[in-house]
Amino acid sequence: MKNFLLICFLFFGAHSGLEAQNTTLNKQQTMAYINKLYKIAYRYKETKIDTVTVDGKVLTVFLSTGQHYRSDLSKSEPLVVARVKSGYQIRYKSAASTEEILWAIQTEDDAKRLQKALQHLIGILKTEKKTDPFGS
Predict the structure, then answer these.
(1) Digitized pLDDT (tens) for each residue of the chain, 136 residues in all
(2) Which one of 36, 109, 111, 121 has the largest count of C-beta atoms within 10 Å of its C-beta?
(3) Can you name the residues that pair with 55 across neighbouring β-strands?
(4) Of 81, 87, 85, 109, which Cα lies nearest the Cα of 43?
């Protein structure tokens, strides 16, 4: 009887652990992840990433200098990680190297993690109901 209870305990414990690993992040959690990782991974020290936001299907990166850069996330093509002079960048496969979504990422590993997070965010945005009455 003890062995049966032990097996049941191990089975249900392992099963609930798998469920926790397979839970997907929602939009807010994904944006928090992107913000946290991009602030750490950004290469330049004289300029910092202030915040990254998404409004509709537009991602905006705000810098500490007051500048901001907007990127359209509604394209239906793959994102790529590219090595450039300033580190790594994430852009659409067909986009020019000057049309990056995120740039100046220090390591390839960080760039790949940010790429996966952006792909996840794009998936969320595709299924999200439109809230902008004048948007397309």
Answers:
(1) 555 544 544 444 544 444 444 468 999 999 999 999 999 999 998 999 999 999 999 999 999 999 999 999 999 899 999 999 999 999 999 999 899 999 999 999 999 999 999 999 999 999 887 776 776 6
(2) 111
(3) 58
(4) 87
The region, left, alpha or beta by phi > 0 then psi within -120 to 50, assigned to residue 2 is alpha
Q: Tell me how far the alpha carbon of residue 118 is from its chain's centroid.
A: 3
Provide DSSP, 5-27: HHHHHHHHHHHHHHHHHHPPP-H
HEC profile of 104-134? EECCHHHHHHHHHHHHHHHHHHHHCCCCCCC
CA separation for the pair 85, 63 (Å, rounded): 20
Question: Pairing mode, if any, of strands 79-84 and 87-92?
Answer: antiparallel
Place of tokens 């609930």: 16
